[in-house]
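Recap slide: glutamate formimidoyltransferase, sequence and predicted structure.
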Amino acid sequence: MSSFDSGQPRTTFREITGKGFVFIWTLSASELTGRENKMKIIECVPNFSEGRNREVVESIVAVLTAVSGIRLLDYSLDADHHRSVVTFIGSPDTVVAGALAACNRAVEQIDMRKHRGGVHPRIGAVDVVPFIPLDDAEMKDAIAAAHSFGAIFGDQNQIPVYFYGAAALTSERRELPAVRRGGYESLEERLKDPSWKPDAGPAVFNAKSGATAVGARIPLVAFNVVLNCCDLEPAREIARCIRQSSGGLPHVKAIGIPLESRQVVQVSMNLTDYRETSMCRVFDEIKARAECLGVEILESELIGLVPRDALGGRDPEYFKLKDFTSSRILEECLCDPDFPFKKAE
């Protein structure tokens, strides 16, 4: 996000030191040549299997923000998905400490044996913990953070941990859907298979907490499009047509799911490389296929923050984005000196 790749726009960061001094700086590889202590910023976006109990989610956020050096950027929860997503940044060591604090609290408070009704795929209470390099951080820094977190978290909580994405130790586990295949319900049986031995933590089923996927990756866009109908088949058909695994658009993962609380359906997506397959391309494809099926797009939503370039220069109205403000753009959050936290509404 921001200047992750050479030639990307610079990002401004604001730091309050222990002595109370405020520093504001921009990070650019060319301008920072010769700087003794370049900043390495890692983003972490843990996904928790709790989307209906706000007190639990806010408890997780509270212990996270108590960690010195952590900057919370966003958090949200969704009852239909039965899932919450938290976004924060910090130095590599600080982000690992913050992730451990938040995820340990989640393990205390979330019981997968009671997790019912969520439509989102999941394998554990702490379902997914990705680490993303920003600015002067490199992918190797995110991988190191993922491996450090995974080893400590798995050992402390006796939870099987699987590394995915750039942090994967085997090619078979590089893709997140492969790690989550079968979900929590099949986890106990899968752990009996020697080929499914976890990368960290015990090869023992933890009924309360399940397992956790820990990864390193480039920024992705979590993009959901809601169709104005209650029939699930159009959403499933569109998802089948656009996802890469079915021969659709590159770097698109998609499923069709019902939103029972609203009596509508949703095409839920991850765009794993928005630079190659843009939001605009995906939205236009969904719109065209929806029209062919006789349904309309009601609205769309973004989960978490997105790089400015993800919008491709389009206005939010083009995508029918719900509740969209500039605070959803990563660069805006980082550039705003008066943006310490975003509280859930």
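The domain at 41-216 is CATH 3.30.990.10 (Formiminotransferase-cyclodeaminase; Chain B, domain 1).
The CA atoms of residues 235 and 261 lie 16 Å apart.
(End of recap.)
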